[in-house]
Amino acid sequence: MSATAPPAATPQKTADERLLHTSPLRKLLGRPELGSVVGAVAVFIFFSVVADSFLQTSSFSTVLYAASTLGIMAVPVALLMIGGEFDLSAGVLVTTSALVSSMVSYQLTANVWVGVLVSLLVTLAVGVFNGLLLTRTKLPSFIITLGTFLMLTGLNLGFTKLISGTVSTKSIADMDGFESAKSLFASQLTIGDISLKVTILWWFALVALATWILLRTRFGNWIFAVGGNAPAARAVGVPVVKTKIGLYLGVGFCAWVSGQHLLFSFDVVQSGEGVGNELTYIIAAVIGGCLITGGYGSAIGSAVGAFIFGMTSKGIVYAEWNPDWFKFFLGAMLLLATLLNAWVRKRAEATK
Predict the structure, then answer these.
(1) What confidence tens digit (pLDDT) does each residue in 49-83 have?
(2) Of 67, 140, 195, 242, whose CB count within 10 A is highest?
(3) Distance in angstroms between the alpha carbons of the first and the last residue of the chain
(4) How many CA atoms does the CB half-sphere of 336 hold within 13 Å?
(5) DSSP symbols for 86-147
């Protein structure tokens, strides 16, 4: 009698994790900005109830404007935090941008566009300086940008008093090119019954660009890799130095945009402005889902965080509350948003 060998066992194919179907709920829980969106809805409903004028069209445009002036800088700060770094000089760099543009234009009695372009070169140079010093010295970005913050604060005041004799710049409203520059950086658009500042368009464009970079480009992958584990990223060929310098260049560019808006909105600039704003940018990014430790976050989240800031700052006014309580509400929102974002992230990891 002949024995028949049993058929060989067919090895089961292990499905590629990248090809597994992901449910919409799991995708939603994995979004860094989910917690901030929930918070934004709660803040919106709250002020809609307690402030009668909050839902008016004019009020909404004011909220958007307040959010945009913060949001323009919150975008590059969020990308920098995803990359694992900070920039404490971002607030005063905005003022530096405005001061350089104003003083160069006034002192050279040239077209204001000369000052605008010189200002762009200066802010980008500061970004390169921060990036190079960070990557060459290996010092924490907190220390390096704190030093830059102090130097820029002193330079802003010292040069303004040396050149203008006061703590503010001279008006450049009557110079050639002022109106065209104002139309780009500080104009107002009217759509139906809604009046929108051009900074809102700048803000939306920067958020869209940053989101595309993070999710659709190699540089975006580098940002997440560097922020998650820089030594490991370097070991697999990620250009860590170029990535970090590029992130600081982004901060410099957005500081230039914000500074030009500041200048062409008010014609003159106070040299002491901008101190403390760097913390507000970081708060907006954290509320939007960015981790202090890096490697996690989104540009959309920073926009939502800035929108929450705009709703809160103006909602308190519309509710006719004492504005002295604003910092309290901002701090409470920071803590609640951080706790909510941590819970959402744990839920997302648990469903993987």
Answers:
(1) 988 888 888 888 999 999 999 999 999 999 999 99
(2) 67
(3) 53
(4) 15
(5) --TTHHHHHHHHHHHHHHHHHHTT--HHHHHHHHHHHHHHHHHHHHHHHHHH---HHHHHHH
